[in-house]
Amino acid sequence: MSAVQETASDAPAVEAVPKRAMTLGTGTSLVVLALLIAAPLFVKNFVIFQMTMLLVYGLAVLALNILTGGSGQFSLGQSAFYAVGAYTSAILMEHFGMNYALTLPVAGLICFVFGFLFGQPALRLSGVYLALATFALATAMPQLLKLGYFEYWTGGVQGLVVTKPDAPFGLPISQDMWLYYFTLVITIAIYIFSVNLLKSRSGRAFMAIRDNEIAASAMGIDVALYKTLAFGVSAGITGVAGGLGAIAVQFVAPDGYTITLAISLFLGMVVGGVGWLPGSIIGSAFIIFVPNIAEGISKGLSGAVFGVILFLVIFLVPHGARQVAMVAQHMLGKLKKR
Amino acid sequence: MELFTNQILAGIATGAIYACMALAVVMIYQAIDHLNFAQGEMAMFSTFISWQLMQWGVPYWGAFLLTLVFSFAGGIAIERLLFKPLAKAPILTNVAGFIALFAIINSVAGLIWDFTIKQYPTPFGSSPFLGSQLISTHQAGMIGVTVLLLIALYFFFQFTRIGLAMRAAASLPESARLVGINTSWMIALGWGMAAAIGSIAGMLIAPVVFLEPNMMGGVLIYGFAAAVLGGLTSPFGAVIGGFLVGIFENLAGTYIPGVGNELKLPIALALIVTVLVVKPAGLFGRPIVKRV
Predict the structure, then answer these.
(1) Domains in chain B and their CATH numbers?
(2) CB A57 within 8 A of CB A242
(3) pLDDT tens digits for B16-34?
(4) Kind of pairing between the strands at A160-161 and A251-252
(5) Which of A175, B176, B181, B288 is 20 to 30 A from A108 (CA-CA)?
(6) What is the mean pLDDT of residues B4-24?
C-alpha cells in the first residue's frame, strides 16, 4: 500500500536471549530434580500419569523452544512431528513387536529426517509465511493418517491401541510409576543434550541466525544448513516426546494430533518464556492443568476463563516464567549480599 | 469442459467468502503487523449481534449498519484495552494474546447464543444467478460487495488524509510520529476498520455456512491462506488470493482422485506453500528488503 520500500534492519522476531540466561543454576537444577524424583512416591497413579504427560509435553515445548528461541524460526507444525513420533512408536510396538524403549530412537530419527527435509522448502520462508507452511503441515497430518492407503498400518480413524509396558527386572512398582521414571530419565538426557547443544558451536550459530541472518552469513555461518538442522533437531525431540506420549496414553488416533496440540505447545513456550529451556516444564504444566482449572471454575465458560487466565499471565509477565525466574534470582542475589 | 467451467464458477463463489475474510486479515496486518487469530471470532460475534438485532425486529440494512458501528467501536475497544498494553511485549506474546481472545469470544458467544445452528437471512435472495445453478444471487451479491469494498478501501487509502496517515504509521512508525501523526490511534483505527470489514464478511458468509459460534474456523484458515498467497501487504492481492484459493480447492476436490472433503484443505494449503516457495512474499506482496 505504501510507496516506501519496507526494510527490516533490526527487530528480530524473537528477542535475543543471552546464552547464560537459557539455563538454570546448578543448585536450582538439583532441587527441581529432587522434586521430580520424589514427587511420585506420594501421589496416586492418575497424578503420576499426569506428571508423565507433564514431562512429555515439556519435551515437546523444549523442542519448539530450540527451534523458535534458539534459531528464531516459528512453527505451528509441531503436532505433525509429534504425531509421526507417536505413530512410529505405536506401529513398531504393535506390528513388529519391538521393545518400547527401542522404538524411541527410531521415532526420533525418523522425525529428525522428516523435520530436516521439511526445513528445506521452509528455508525460503520466514515469519508469517513460515507459520502458514508449518500450519499447513499440522492440518494435513491428521487427514493423511486417516487415508485408506495406510489403514493397515495406522488403523485409520480408529487409531491403534498400545500396550503399556511393565516395570522390568520384577521391580515392585506400578506401570505408571515405572513409565514416569523412564520418561524422567529420557527427559533429563534430552534436556542436558539441548543445553549443551545451545552452548556448542551449532547453538551459537542458531542464535546468530536468530539475531541477524545476514550478519550470521557474513560471519561464515552456513545459514541454510543450520536452519534445517534446527528444524531436524526440534522435530527429532518432538518425535521422541510423541513416542513417549503414545506409550503413556496407550492409544494413538489421528484426532489426538490436530492443530490444537500445536497451538497448545506454542502457548506452553510463550508461558514458559521463549528461549528459556527450563521454562518448558512450566509451560507444559500450564497447558496441562490450566484448561482443567478453567473447566473447574465454570463449565460453560471454560474457554473464556482459560482466555482470561492466559491474558492475565501475559499481562503480568510478558516474557513468561523466565521473567519470574530472573526477578527471583535478582532478589536472591540481593539477599545474599546482605 | 463444462464440468471444468462449472467448478471454476463454484470456486469463485466460495472464493468470494475467503476474499472477504482475507481483506479483513490484510487490513489488520497493515495496521498492527501481526496476523490476528481472533479475527474470525470477532466477525462471528458481530454476525451474532446483527442476528440478535434482526430477532428484535430491526430490518436487515438497519441491523447491518448498526453492526458495522458496533464492530468498529468494539475493534477499537479491544485494541485500547487488551493490546495497547502489550505493544512493547514480544511478538509471540501478542500471538498468545490473540489465541486467548479467540478462546474468550468463542466461549462467550456459545454461552449467549448456544451452539445450535441458526439460519441467517440474505438481502440478495437465493435464486440461481443468470440461470447458473452454481452461483446464486446471494453469492453474486457477495462478490459484488467484496469488489465494492476493495474499491472503497483503495480510495480511502489513496485519496484521504487519514488513509495516508494510516499508511505512513504502518510502514514507518517513527518517521510518521515525527511528522505529527498519532500512530497509536492509527493502530486503533486499523483494528476498528478490520473489525468492521470482518463483520461485513461474517454477515455475507452466514447465509452460506449458517450461523454458529464455530462458523469461522474453516473460513479463517482459508482467509489466512488467501491473504498470505496474495501477499500480506496487498489488499488487492488478498482478494485475488481468496478467489484463487476457492478455485484451487474446488478443482482439487474434483480432479484429484481420492480427495474428499477432508483432504481439500491440506491440498489447498500444500499448493499455497508451493506457490510461496517460488514467491516467498506472495503473489502481489512486496518483498521486504533486509539489511544488517
Answers:
(1) 2-278 (1.10.3470)
(2) no
(3) 888 888 888 887 787 777 7
(4) antiparallel
(5) A175
(6) 82
pLDDT band at residue A178, thresholds of 50, 70 and 90?
A: confident
Map residue B115 onto helix, strand or coil.
coil
- Domain containing residue A246: 19-31+43-337
**From its phi and psi, is residue A170 left (phi > 0), alpha (psi between -120 and 50) or beta?**
left
Whether residue A308 lies inside any domain: the answer is: yes
Residues 177-236 in B contacting A (C-alpha not used; CB under 8 Å): 221, 224-225, 228, 232-235
SS3 content of chain A, % helix, strand, coil (to 5): 75, 0, 20
The label of the residue with cell 482459508 reads B222
**Could you give the CA distance from residue A251 to residue A86 in angstroms, rounded to a whole number?**
9
pTM score of the predicted model: 0.85
Q: Which of residues 15-34 of B touch A (CB under 8 A)?
A: 29-30
Check: CB of residue B126 under 8 Å from CB of residue B109: no
Say yes or no for a CB contact (<8 Å) between B233 and A1: yes
| CATH number of the domain that residue A77 is part of | 1.10.3470
pLDDT in tens, A34-47: 888 878 778 787 88
Please indicate if any CB of chain A lies within 8 Å of the CB of B59.
no
User: Closest by alpha carbon to B229, among B91, B25, B4?
Assistant: B25
Please report the ipTM that was assigned to this predicted complex: 0.81
Per the structure, the count of domains in chain A is 1
